[in-house]
Amino acid sequence: MKTTMLIASVLLASTAVAADVPSVEVQIAAAVLAAPAELRGGAAVLGYNPQGGLVTLREGKNELICLANDPSKSSFSVACYHRDLEAYMARGRELAAQKVTGQKRNDIRWKEVAEGKLSLPREPRTLYVLTGTGFDASSGKVTDPYLRWVIYVPFATPESTGLSTKPSDNAPWLMYPGTAGAHIMINPPKK
Questions:
Q1: Residue 191: inside a domain, yes or no?
Q2: 38 assigned to some structural domain
Q3: How many domains does the chain have?
Q4: pLDDT tens per residue across span 115-153
Q5: In angstroms, rounded to a whole number, what is the distance separating the alpha carbons of residues 181 and 127?
Q6: Is 75 within the bounds of a domain?
Q7: Spatial separation of the C-alpha atoms in residues 142 and 98, rounded to whole Å
Q8: For residues 27 and 70, what is the distance between their CA atoms, to the nearest angstrom?
Q9: Residue 184: which of 136, 149, 147, 141 has the closest Cα?
Q10: Alpha carbons 117 and 22: distance in angstroms, whole number
């Protein structure tokens, strides 16, 4: 009896996940919206299979990898980043799946970069992040869209960049200066 209930619960949960995962076409259309228009068609896209697992939905023909919206989350968030950041991003997703988040996740990745266990380019690489309160698949529009940019510049400092380390809605600023995860944040004012 307990086994039957367990199997029924698992089947019901997997059916619920499958019902909530958008089609491959919808996931790709939404994911690439974070990228510059001229790079969307050639970007690789990672998204979700019917069981909720992250998979490659489309192979890429250019330098961008786009990550589809996580169907298990209530808000909308997609991102595209340079393929040279994939090892770093994949490790971040792996740690998040293990419930390692925040500064601890950063510390682990930065230590692995320092030890040569995790690759991260030393030259600047861009991440585009598009968030919103929802996505209308029929129109291809994001509700309340907000696009921001992150430029990874490992080990950059205020002295090497001339950037402030104070968040600003009107100017780029440097986050995590001097670390492997140093990056320039560009946050336009929200409407």
A1: no
A2: yes
A3: 1
A4: 999 999 989 999 999 999 999 999 999 999 999 999 999
A5: 12
A6: yes
A7: 30
A8: 9
A9: 149
A10: 35
